[in-house]
Fold this protein.
Amino acid sequence: MRLRPTRLRWLSQIIFFSLFLFLLLRTGFRGSLHAGGSEIRLPYPVQLFFQFDPLVALSNALSSRALYHGLLWSLIVLIPTMLLGRFFCGWICPLGSIHHFFSSLRSERKRGKQLIESNRYKRWQTTKYYLLVAALIAAVLGTGIVGWLDPFSLLVRSLGLSILPGTDYALNAVLRAMEHSRFALVQMVGSGLHFIFGGLLLSFKQPYFRQGVWLGLVFIFLLALNFRVTRFWCRALCPLGALLGIVSRWSILGLVKTPERCEDCNRCLLRCQGGDDPIGGVPWRQPECHLCLNCIDDCPEHGLQFKFFPAQKSIGVNLQRRKVFAGLAAGAVMVPLLRSTPGFAVERDERLLRPPGALDEEYFLSRCIRCGECMKVCPNNALQPALTEAGLEGLWTPVMVPRIGYCETSCVLCSQVCPTGAIWEITAKEKGWGPTVGSDAKPISLGTAFLDRGRCLPWAMATPCIVCEEWCPTSPKAIYLQPAEVADVEGHLKQVKQPFVDPHRCVGCGACEYACPVQVRPAVYLTSIGETRSRTNQILLNRGMEGTR
């Protein structure tokens, strides 16, 4: 039996989407960070799709004046696009496949003139090119905000920080109810499903992410737009699609229309994904075509076919000069405006705690594409998407929230999965959170802990408590205890051990704040001051300038 081209495309979409979902689910650690003694590494290349993303590679090269290792693999996508066109959008892109699926639901539900007309080319489809121009100009000026719209960043951020945690919670709730059922059969089925899903889908422990509901609602809204316009995201907003559309303008593979066979039935528009006008009587718009091949499959007269070096000419990207200049101006103006606010350089949020290995803030923001990989992989759920901590430019970049989770001593997983080098890849030895702390070795520090004596139980309430000292992982400990004699409310003297912080030993792991039993606002809290990545954000300036001497 002969396999039709459209079915080959379906098979390709299923394979690549399954691979993407598998790698996303594997972007998480399920073992013990203290087992063995060798460095923990993920067994799968979870950042694979980012390495194949030409938009990530180009923006990274423009913003950092270099290309992070692995991003050169994007040529595997870019070079064939020059020869074949936007095959990536129609055959590989997982986000495109999701939009394709929801658009097909609309196509089955609503056919006729309205669907045919909506699949004609529209001028608003050029919006993605202007967004691409603005994002690349912003990258030249040193910011990675292209990650807000990059399809892989959007998909990982939406699924990894919202949809999957929600699914995890719902599945656990259903399975727990089944396992506690009064019926033995239901209990057995629940246990079996828990065993299956526990290895395939469920997280090691329930993750929680700030802004998860909003990230999920934005994603669902984009999917819902497919019921109005076929693949609206891909046609109007996707900057990667715009980049591939520009590159595909010189493709040697093109659509050939045979006018004498065309009966103006317009069936070729029923399932057109790109809005590229495959109908007769008008030129074909090559940069918009996703090579879905639906038009060829639907033509009853076989009047459409793809050929190499076609004689018929197509229309390229038709942009308005004023809008191009507007995109250039938007990208050029955005970065100075964002970075002229006090929060960027002189009044940083004291809770702007970046992961270990993160670059200094300026360079971090130029490389970070807000993909959420580091947040997804963090075993303690410590990394969260930023809202206001880093200003508008830092929206959805990773920040550590110690009250939710702390940074494990031997964990460097976030640096392994970062696709752009915003978090530089380090080893556990380079991190240095072991017995070397306090010696000549200089460990990576995320910040410094401070004590609020007005809330600390031994200081303010004459109540014994040594939790922060017990949880401190450094050796020698950064939090040490001194015996003291204090009076309680009735005037009776009591012996307690009061905690103190040694800032030279503190690495800013956040374990003390995480474990502090004082609720609402802990008595020990972590701030970014003293972080290794900054030479100026120091308790004493000369401490940060030692490396410059």
Remarks:
- Residues 513 and 525 are 5 Å apart (CA to CA).
- Residues 151-179 form the longest helix (29 residues).
